[in-house]
Design goal:
CATH architecture of the largest domain: Up-down Bundle
Number of helices: 32
Number of strands: 25
CATH superfamily of the largest domain: Calcium-transporting ATPase, transmembrane domain
CATH class of the largest domain: Mainly Alpha
Radius of gyration: 34 Å
Helix content: 40-55%
Bound molecules: adenosine-5'-triphosphate
């Protein structure tokens, strides 16, 4: 059901047409309509089918080369080689297909976790519902930062403006109201309508759902959901590029080698060709891109388990490299479970007992707080309700605490709201005009320095001091005031100097214990933590002290920031960790100032005005619960639990992912280089091949799907959060990596030729010598894997030896496979192998151990030099 002409008729008529009321539908009616009209969801963009996805696995330069080789070997009737090559191709495709499917499923699951919520009226009460559950006739409440959840007819609007760029391309917000517009008005001119998917940038509204799901304007143009996240990051893209470039280089070398062997070495073409194919297959890191993608997908899932949801994949690398975290205070460092503990009125000071949001608790000394409590109750958008015996709040916890306080003071007065000025972090107060038993009253609550200035006949200095002494104890302080009213709207200008002061209240919002631990962890990890809050300097400093931030008493306020120019700010920002009474605009300046020091900045945010700072930050983090949709859209990462500890956990996982990508690269490249150089050298020197082409293909097949994959599953190394952050622009192919490739490839070469020569010298048949050389290569790769697992610390610990299930599983598979091809007669004839004696087997193991000892000693020396 959609109401097509909703924009042209008055709001009341729209309500009637949809059989709806100003106070929303009943739950029963909403459920009925949901079954009738279906969920408010856009049809899923159709993904690629499984067959296409499987075939795409073959769409890769390397695979073309391999398929070409298979054809030529087929023509030459080297059936075994053809079979092995095709097996390599198939195994790669199957692994790629399965893992890519898993990765896509993981991303899809995460998209579901980001499903939007909406505030609707059901049975006359404000409730939070899934956006998908909205039905035509529902009443939706909107405020700045919300994403419009369906097509709505505006029923009520206060200072409402909406950004409709996704529909109209126009990025300047459009003002909206209730007045009907002409039937033929363009979409962007229908001021009485709100379109699904657009963002509320200011004001509040009440809207009637007139179209849902595919019936909405955005649904009709089939927009939005098409933007499926690509599974790539800067590092993976760089490696992809590198792998492609490397493939061409290797093909070129292979061609030169073929020409050299044929014309200079006069080798028989068929054998030579097979050897060169072996070299090419050995050298190209065909599995690398897939394994890196898998590492990322595993990282995304690990972060989601720790309540950090990745919205943009590149953030997984960025979050691992942050050197400064700028965080909100309320709800992130503190619990955002507020309790109003103190009240100060011109009559005296009162302590308020009680825990949680229960409206029960003693006020000492007994006194009449009726007017203050009435202001607390009426200048309020939250609602308390009993859930499973406990009191819970729907809405802002601070306002919940005010309602609990009103209950304790015995105030429970219903009044009709006539007008309101919503809270805005720029003007820091909220005003509400109501009509009730006490008559028509405007109540104002807000930051003391703001509200006190609006009051008449006050000793400002006295009350400022009182307010600061509350703040110094870490309490969040609000001032409350009122005025009798005659009209039915609030004129903001008339509030200045026209209010009667009622009192101050102080709210406790204790720090989260896990945030204290996380701040300490960040410090150890060389990450500076800065608190950016809208709260008072005194409150902020007190909380900063409890949390363990550096220099908690050196506070810069928003006003200080306004006085500093960018250069001065850049100087000041480094040594300050507490920024108080800031507005969202300051966040952007702070990010820029920190980045000017070459720091990688993570910034949290929740409001609509935080979006620019979140976009600018290296890692923008939005709050999942408290955050507005606008902030979430701008963010790279969303905290499902709004908890600072989850940011630290995300950094740890981000560092793990980066390490694992490095490990995958550091294991793969030397392995490929070592394998291929063995054959190239033999060809150039005109020696017998120590490992045959088909054996090289076999090794590639078996190790790529086992050992190569294992590193993607590596857990976090101990000490990961005791290292300083990696530099912002750390290159992938660092000097260290190139050195590692050269060292390991050389050692591979020496070991394989060593064992091969030993066997030939002993007079073993060529096939046996080759079998030993091949097994040596596999043993070296296994030892190399154990070495790579601990690139930042020693591998000689019990934990390192114990390894992980994945590592031992792949080692067992590879070992079993090598035993099979060495000792089972059928396989011996396929791969041209012969049984190896126990003594020679031990010799091969010893060679691996010696290799391990050398690279481990080299690492120890390197780590020693560094520290
Ligand atoms: P943080 O950045 O730590 O989360 P914050 O976002 O809570 O802080 P703001 O929401 O900008 O900071 O609030 C700044 C000040 O405005 C508060 O200290 C309080 O004095 C006042 N304030 C906050 N919320 C309201 C409200 N709903 N009504 C009236 N005043 C408010």
């Amino acid at each position: 059901m959609t109401l097509i002409h909703a924009h042209t008729i008055p709001a009341a008529q729209c309500l009637a047409a949809l059989d709806a009321t100003h106070d929303g539908l009943t739950t029963a009616e909403a459920n009925d309509r949901l079954t009738k009209f279906g969920p408010n969801r856009l049809p899923e963009a159709r993904g690629r089918g499984p067959l296409l996805r499987f075939l795409l696995q073959f769409h890769n330069v390397l695979i073309y080369v391999l398929l070409g080789a298979a054809v030529v070997t087929g023509v030459l009737q080297h059936w075994i080689d053809t079979g092995v090559i095709l097996a390599v191709v198939l195994a790669n495709a199957v692994i790629g297909f399965v893992q890519e499917g898993k990765a896509e499923a993981a991303m899809a699951a995460i998209r579901n976790m980001l499903a939007p919520k909406a505030a609707a009226l059901r049975d006359g009460n404000r409730v939070t519902v899934d956006g998908a559950d909205l039905v035509p006739g529902d009443i939706v409440l909107l405020e700045a930062g919300d994403k419009v959840p369906a097509d709505l007819r505006v029923i009520e609007a206060r200072g409402l403006a909406v950004q409709e760029a996704i529909l109209t391309g126009e990025s300047v917000p459009v003002e909206k109201g209730t007045t009907p517009v002409a039937a033929d008005a363009a979409l962007g001119d229908r001021r009485s309508m709100l379109w699904s998917g657009t963002l509320v940038t200011q004001g509040t509204a009440r809207g009637l759902v007139v179209a849902t799901g595919a019936g909405t304007e955005i649904g009709r143009i089939g927009g939005l959901l098409a933007d499926v996240e690509q599974l790539t990051t800067p590092l993976v893209a760089q490696m992809d590029h590198f792998a492609r470039w490397l493939s061409f280089l290797i093909l070129l070398c292979a061609a030169l080698l073929l020409a050299y062997g044929y014309f200079v070495g006069h080798l028989p073409f068929a054998d030579l060709f097979m050897a060169v194919v072996g070299v090419a297959v050995a050298a190209i890191p065909e599995g690398l891109p897939a394994v890196m993608t898998i590492s990322l997908a595993i990282g995304v899932q690990a972060m989601a388990r720790r309540n950090a949801i990745i919205r943009r994949l590149p953030a997984i690398e960025a979050i691992g490299s942050v050197s400064v975290i700028c965080t909100d205070k309320t709800g992130t460092l503190t619990r955002n479970e507020m309790v109003l503990a103190a009240a100060v009125t011109p009559e005296g000071s009162f302590a308020i007992a009680g825990e949680g949001y229960a409206p029960e608790g003693a006020i000492t000394p007994a006194g009449d707080l009726g007017q203050l409590a009435l202001a607390a109750a009426l200048c309020n958008d939250a609602r308390l309700h009993r859930k499973d015996g406990a009191w819970a709040v729907e809405g802002d916890p601070m306002e919940g605490a005010l309602l609990a306080f009103a209950g304790k003071a015995g105030v429970d007065q219903a009044a009709r709201r006539l007008d309101a000025i919503p809270f805005d972090s720029r003007h820091r107060f909220m005003a509400v005009l109501t009509e009730g038993a006490a008559g028509r009253l405007t109540h104002v609550k807000g930051a003391p320095e703001r509200v006190l200035r609006m009051c008449a006949g006050l000793d400002l200095d006295h009350w400022q001091t009182r307010s600061e002494s509350l703040a110094g104890k870490g309490l969040r302080v609000l001032a409350l005031a009122q005025r009798a009213e005659a009209g039915d709207s609030i004129d903001p200008a008339s509030l200045e100097g026209g209010l009667t002061f009622l009192g101050l209240v102080g709210l406790i919002d204790p720090p989260r214990p896990e945030a204290i631990a996380a701040v300490a962890e960040c410090r150890a990890a060389g990450i500076r933590v800065k608190m950016i809050t809208g709260d008072h300097a005194g409150t902020a400093a007190a909380i900063a002290r409890q949390i363990g931030l550096e220099n908690p008493d050196r506070v810069l306020t928003g006003r200080d920031l306004d006085r500093l120019d960018d250069a001065q700010l850049a100087l000041e920002v480094a040594g300050t960790s507490v920024f108080a009474r800031t507005s969202p605009e300051h966040k952007l300046r702070l990010v820029t100032a920190l980045q000017s020091h070459g720091l990688s900045v993570a910034m949290t945010g929740d409001g609509v005005n935080d979006a620019p700072a979140l976009k600018r930050a290296d890692a923008g983090i939005a709050m999942g619960q408290k955050g507005s949709e606008a902030a979430k859209e701008a963010a790279d990462l969303i905290l499902a639990d709004d908890n600072f500890a989850s940011i630290a956990a995300a950094v740890r996982e981000g560092r793990t992912v980066w390490d694992n990508l490095q490990k995958v690269i550091s294991w793969t490249l030397p392995t490929n280089a070592g394998e291929s150089i063995v054959i190239v050298l033999a060809l150039i020197l005109g020696l017998a091949l120590p490992i045959t082409a088909v054996q090289i293909l076999w090794i590639n097949l078996i190790t790529a799907i086992t050992l190569g994959l294992a590193l993607a599953f590596e857990p976090t190394e101990t000490g990961t959060m005791a290292r300083p952050p990696r530099p912002r622009q750390a290159p992938v192919l660092s000097g260290g990596l190139v050195w590692h490739v050269i060292l390991v490839a050389t050692l591979f070469l020496a070991a394989v030729f060593g064992v091969f020569t030993y066997a030939m010298d002993k007079g073993y048949p060529l096939a046996l010598a080759q079998t030993m050389a091949m097994n040596t290569l596999v043993v070296l790769e296994i030892f190399h894997l154990f070495f790579i697992r601990n690139i930042h610390s020693t591998s000689l610990t019990w934990a390192a030896v114990r390894g992980t299930k994945v590592v031992w599983a792949v080692v067992i598979v590879v070992t079993a496979a090598q035993f099979a091809v060495t000792y089972i007669p059928v396989l011996q004839s396929v791969l041209g192998t012969e049984a190896v004696s126990l003594f020679d087997g031990l010799l091969i193991l010893g060679t691996g151990a010696a290799f391990f000892a050398i690279i481990e000693i080299e690492k120890q020396i390197r780590l020693g030099l560094k520290s």
